[in-house]
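Q: How would the structure tokens look for this protein?
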Amino acid sequence: MPSRRRHSYGGGASPATVSSSYSNSTFTDRFSPTTTTDKSSSIARWISKIFINCFTPPDTVTSKNFDDSEQTIRSRRSSTGSVQRHYGNGIANETEHPRFTFDEIYDATKNFSPSFRIGQGGFGTVYKVKLRDGTTVAVKRAKKSIHDDRQGKEFTSEIQTLAQVTHLSLVRYYGFLVHNDEKILIVEYVANGSLRDHLDCKEGKILDMATRLDIATDVAHAITYLHMYTQPPIIHRDIKSSNILLTENFRAKVADFGFARVAPDSESGATHVSTQVKGTAGYLDPEYLTTYQLTEKSDVYSFGVLLIELLSGRRPIELSRVHKERITIRWAIKNFTNGDTLSVLDPKLEQNPANNLALEKVLEMAFQCLAPHRGSRPTMKKCSEILWGIRKDYRELLNTSL
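A: Here is the predicted structure in token form.
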């Protein structure tokens, strides 16, 4: 019987409703370390004080903006999965011919039998499928609901995004099928579950600090690629631990592009995309939440939440904890500000010089990512450079202490 391992290919969560209590809340191999300086520490503590007090309303931004309706694509799809895309600007006209058919997917899943199911999400159900040529893939089957328009937009968004990205730390796209009322997306199968599963020890192995730093660096590189090296740039909009899949070697792959959006065109003078708020509670950029203005820095904020999650092992929102510890980033910032940094470390990890150093350095960077105003946050490229230096310092200290 096929594996029943759970995955989070299942697509973006529904638009989050966030309480007011939360609202107060390839690279070169050598980067010069730029962390744990007095300056970065003071910046982190300055940002911490802002979080402890409150979030101040963001400044009014005057800019050109893009409406959701501008990036439209009209498609003609056949039941075999071939597609002729007609882009809104009339520039591109491309036809794809995938090597699989709906009948093949139907047969491989035994009529979408529950025994092949490996995940469930806002987009629909995910199945592990072995194709006729022996390739194992993940098949995302869009759910049929009254929200057909929304589901169709998310399906189209994921196709458009996955079709143009190629990176070692991004889930690979194979193709899609539309057959009658069925919408099917075929992507790379990543065999080792999600980051959240491993932080919860559902896979039976505790992630050590070295692995967590590798994962953070992989994710940073993937998001940097989306922001800087795709044309046009892409904002993921749903960076979270359940969307980070791990390979057998514990390398990270970012998944689920259902909420992804094209970034503003800087050459036109635009500074943001005006769009309905979508994402997951606990990871949402508060400035985006209040202004509906989406930028690459919204991904940076979500990445900061992910870093706290990696270090502490806690979910962003933990309702089972006492009130003052329910919002993880606020709890972590308060402990850091009070000089109790080690209490943030996941209790499953050993407190030793190397782990303690990595904890403090990554926390300092995470708090900069969590700045209430996007202008105070670093770019993802800067985060990648800093993490590279932290990982290098960690390995050196770990080797000398053995």
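The chain has two domains: 20-61+192-401, 71-188.

The chain is about 35% helix and 15% strand.

Upvote if useful.
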